[in-house]
C-alpha cells in the first residue's frame, strides 16, 4: 500500500515566525514542503489520513546558522581566550597544520551532529578543506551552504588560479539539498584582485558571498590608519600593503563593489561614521556571533547603530575554537545558546525580533528568504519540536530566554530526529 503523501503534524503551539503563534495548531507536510498550517479546529476537516499528534509541544521553524566553521569543532577548548587577536590567529594556524584529512572530517561531522541536536536545520559553513565535499554532505541531513574559503596573502598565490579552482570545485558538486559558494576569508588575508574576481564569479553564478569584516580593532586600524600589530605582522609576511591606510574595512568593500544584497558580512565589530548606512543602502547583511565575540573580549557590538540604519542582522555560532569553556566543560555548537547570549546583552528587542535573528533574517542573508526559517505554505518542511508548554502569550519569550529541549527535528519533510509521541 502506498504511503500517504501528506502528513498532518498537530501541536499544542505552532510558532510560524512569519505570523503570530497558533494555539492547538497543525502543519500539513507534503512532498518535503509545507502545504498548510493553522488552527487544528479549522484544518481538521481537510486532514490527511496520517495525523501525527505531537502532544504538549511547540513547533518552530528549524534554526538557520548564518556563520559557522564545522571543520574546527574538535578544537573546542584547545585555545584559551587570547590577549591579542593575532595570538589566536597564530594558534589556530598551528593547530590546523597538525591535523589530517580524517581529523577535519570527524570534526566536521561532530559539529553537524551538535547543530542538529540543538535545533539547527540550515547552516552557512565556511569550508577550509573543500576536499571534504560532497562526502560530508551525504553524512548529515542538514541543509548546508558551504562557502569555500579563499586566502591570498603572499604574492606567489595567484588570485585568478584560486578563484578558478574554487569555482571548478563548486560546479563539480552535486545539486540538491546542499550547495556551495565563495568566501574570501577577510580583507587582511586577501587582496583587491582576488576580491574583484570572487565578486565577478559570484555575480555570474548568482551565489551569495560571505566574508569576515572588521572583526578586530587591529584589522580596523590596518585599513583605516595603515598601522598596528596586524599591519606590521602581515607586511613582514610578504603581504602587499598598498590597500591599507585608505579607508575603513566597510568603505573598502564598498569601493570594491562587494556590498550588495547577496553579501553577508560576518562580525562587523568596528564601524567608521557612515559605515552602517553604507551597508544598509547596499542591502548587505551582517552576522554576529555573540559567544565568539565574548571570547575575544571585543568592544561592544554596534547593534544599535546597525539596527537603526536598517541593516538585516542575524546570528551565527562561529567555531568552537573561539568559544570559551563553561564551568570547565567544552562548548558545543548551539544557536539557542547564541540567542540567549545576545538577548542578555541587548534586552530591548521584542521576543519576535530576537527569534528573527536565527530564522527569517538568517535565511534572507543566505538567499533563502521564504524557503527556510519560517513555517509558511510552500516553504521547506524544516521544523523542530520543543518540549515546552508555555502559555501562548509567552511562547516566543520562553523560547528565546529559556534553554529549550529539542525533541524532534524534521528537514525536508523527513524526521532527522523522531519525536516521541
Percent of residues in helices comes to 25-40%
User: What radius of gyration results from the CA coordinates?
Assistant: 22 Å
Named CATH topology of the largest domain = TIM Barrel
The CATH class designation of the largest domain is Alpha Beta
Between the first and last Cα atoms, what is the distance in angstroms?
A: 24 Å
Task: Write up this protein.
The protein has helices at residues 40-43, 85-97, 101-117, 135-138, 159-172, 192-205, 217-224, 229-236, 249-255, 275-282, 290-295, 303-309, 335-345, 351-356, 360-365, 395-401; strands spanning 6-14, 22-30, 33-39, 50-53, 58-61, 63-68, 120-127, 143-150, 179-184, 209-213, 263-267, 285-288, 312-315, 383-386, 406-411, 414-417. With 421 residues, the protein is an alpha/beta fold. The chain folds into two domains: 6-61 and 375-417, Urease, subunit C, domain 1; 63-365, Metal-dependent hydrolases (TIM Barrel). The strands form three sheets. Strands 1, 2, 3, 4, 5, 14, 15 and 16 form an eight-stranded mixed β-sheet that branches. Strands 6-7-8-9 form a four-stranded parallel β-sheet. Strands 10-11-12-13 form a four-stranded parallel β-sheet. It is globular, with a radius of gyration of 22 Å. It starts with 5 loop residues before the first strand and ends with a strand.
Amino acid at each position: 500500500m502506498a504511503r500517504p503523501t501528506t502528513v498532518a503534524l498537530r501541536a499544542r503551539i505552532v510558532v510560524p515566525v512569519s505570523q503570530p503563534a497558533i494555539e492547538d495548531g497543525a502543519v500539513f507536510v507534503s512532498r518535503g514542503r509545507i502545504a498548510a498550517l493553522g488552527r487544528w479546529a479549522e484544518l481538521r476537516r481537510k486532514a490527511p489520513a496520517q495525523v501525527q499528534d505531537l502532544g504538549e509541544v511547540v513547533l518552530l521553524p528549524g534554526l538557520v546558522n548564518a556563520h559557522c566553521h564545522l571543520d574546527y569543532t574538535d578544537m573546542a577548548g584547545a585555545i584559551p581566550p587570547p590577549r591579542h587577536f593575532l595570538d589566536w590567529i597564530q594558534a589556530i594556524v598551528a593547530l590546523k597544520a597538525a591535523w589530517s584529512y580524517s581529523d577535519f572530517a570527524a570534526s566536521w561531522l561532530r559539529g553537524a551532529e551538535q547543530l542538529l541536536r540543538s535545533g539547527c536545520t540550515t547552516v552557512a559553513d565556511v569550508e577550509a578543506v573543500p576536499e571534504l565535499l560532497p562526502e560530508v554532505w551525504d553524512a548529515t541531513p542538514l541543509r548546508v551552504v558551504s562557502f569555500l574559503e579563499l586566502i591570498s596573502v603572499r604574492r606567489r598565490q595567484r588570485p585568478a588560479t584560486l578563484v578558478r579552482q574554487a569555482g571548478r570545485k563548486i560546479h563539480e558538486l552535486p545539486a540538491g539539498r546542499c550547495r556551495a559558494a565563495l568566501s574570501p576569508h577577510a580583507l587582511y588575508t586577501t587582496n583587491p584582485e582576488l576580491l574583484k574576481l570572487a565578486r565577478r564569479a559570484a555575480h555570474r553564478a548568482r551565489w551569495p558571498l560571505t566574508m569576515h569584516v572588521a572583526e578586530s580593532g587591529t584589522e580596523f586600524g590596518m585599513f583605516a590608519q595603515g598601522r598596528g600589530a596586524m599591519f606590521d605582522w602581515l607586511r613582514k609576511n610578504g603581504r602587499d600593503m598598498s590597500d591599507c591606510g585608505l579607508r575603513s574595512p566597510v568603505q573598502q568593500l564598498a569601493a570594491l563593489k562587494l556590498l550588495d544584497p547577496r553579501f553577508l558580512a560576518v562580525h562587523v565589530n568596528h564601524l567608521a561614521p557612515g559605515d552602517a548606512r553604507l551597508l544598509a543602502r547596499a542591502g548587505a547583511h551582517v552576522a554576529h556571533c555573540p559567544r565568539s565575540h565574548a571570547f575575544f573580549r571585543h568592544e561592544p557590538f554596534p547593534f544599535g547603530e546597525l539596527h537603526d540604519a536598517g541593516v538585516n542582522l542575524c546570528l551565527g555560532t562561529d567555531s568552537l575554537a573561539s568559544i570559551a569553556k563553561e564551568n570547565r566543560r567544552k562548548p558545543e555548537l548551539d544557536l539557542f545558546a547564541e540567542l540567549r547570549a545576545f538577548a542578555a546583552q541587548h534586552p530591548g528587542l521584542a521576543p519576535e525580533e530576537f527569534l528573527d535573528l536565527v530564522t527569517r533574517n538568517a535565511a534572507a542573508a543566505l538567499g533563502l528568504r521564504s524557503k527556510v526559517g519560517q513555517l509558511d505554505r510552500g516553504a521547506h518542511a524544516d521544523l523542530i519540536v520543543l518540549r515546552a508548554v508555555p502559555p501562548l502569550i509567552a511562547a516566543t519569550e520562553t523560547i528565546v530566554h529559556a534553554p529549550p529541549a529539542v525533541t524532534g527535528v524534521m528537514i525536508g519533510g523527513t524526521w532527522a530526529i523522531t519525536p516521541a509521541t
